[in-house]
Amino acid sequence: MRTLAGGSALMRTTRGLETASAVDVARADATVEQVDRDHGQQLFGLARRSGLSDAEADDAVQDALLRLWLEVRSGVDILEPRAWTLQTLYHVAMDRHRVRRRALDTIARLTPGRGVVERRRSVESDAADRLSLWTIVDRLPTRQRQVLYLRYKADLTFDQLAAIMGITASAARAHAAFATVRLRQALGEEWQS
Question: Average pLDDT of the chain?
Fold first, then answer.
């Protein structure tokens, strides 16, 4: 038996990543249905206590259950599906908070003349700002756009995204710097009008 994820006792596999059979799919369906039926409220409660809204909590629970289904379908024998799903849900919730914080921090860095962006803004306002920001990012040159997406959406380091893009980390930082200047200019024009 081979242990995955650095020796985690929660997850062990007895076979490689060969194509999922009908038995694996049926086992995955049954595992997810049982976890959702027996622990769905507990999962939702954990997501809400993690600071997510009802809609975000529901999405996070679905994401964690989908990840459970994918793992079981791929042949991974999860010894404690409830514990594995709770741990995964915690990571999903924290990732969502990181993305939100990074978006606010990015907006604050790109608009230095507007003062400090308050952390307790409404969800609607945050969503509108993120939409505005990423709409402008979509208009950037390809390399600059890719660097920003990989850095702030995929949460990769400059070394990681440089390896993906086939450039050096310093070139990735330069693309990010040029993109930041362009975003500041574009956001300044948009928010002044």
Answer: 77
The domain segmentation of the chain, as residue ranges, is 2-97, 111-192
Q: Which of 123, 112, 110 is nearest to 152 (CA)?
A: 110
The residues with which 13 forms a beta bridge, in sequence order, are 2, 76
Whether 2-97 and 111-192 share one fold: the answer is no
Kindly report the CATH class assigned to 111-192: mainly alpha
Distances (CA, A) of 193 to 53, 136, 190: 32, 15, 6
Window from 19-23, 31-35, 47-51, 75-79 with minimum mean pLDDT: 19-23
Query: What does the alpha-carbon distance between residue 83 and residue 39 come to, in Å, rounded to a whole number?
Result: 10
pLDDT in tens, 74-120: 888 888 998 899 888 888 888 887 887 777 777 777 766 554 444 44
DSSP state letters, 163-178: HHHTS-HHHHHHHHHH
Contacts made by residues 6-11, CB under 8 angstroms, sequence distance 24+: 9/79, 10/78, 10/79, 10/80, 10/83, 10/84, 10/87, 11/71, 11/76, 11/77, 11/78, 11/79, 11/84
CATH second-level architecture of 2-97?
Orthogonal Bundle (1.10)
Residue 52 CB neighbours (<10 A):
22
Q: Nearest-CA neighbor of 69 among 39, 44, 32? A: 32
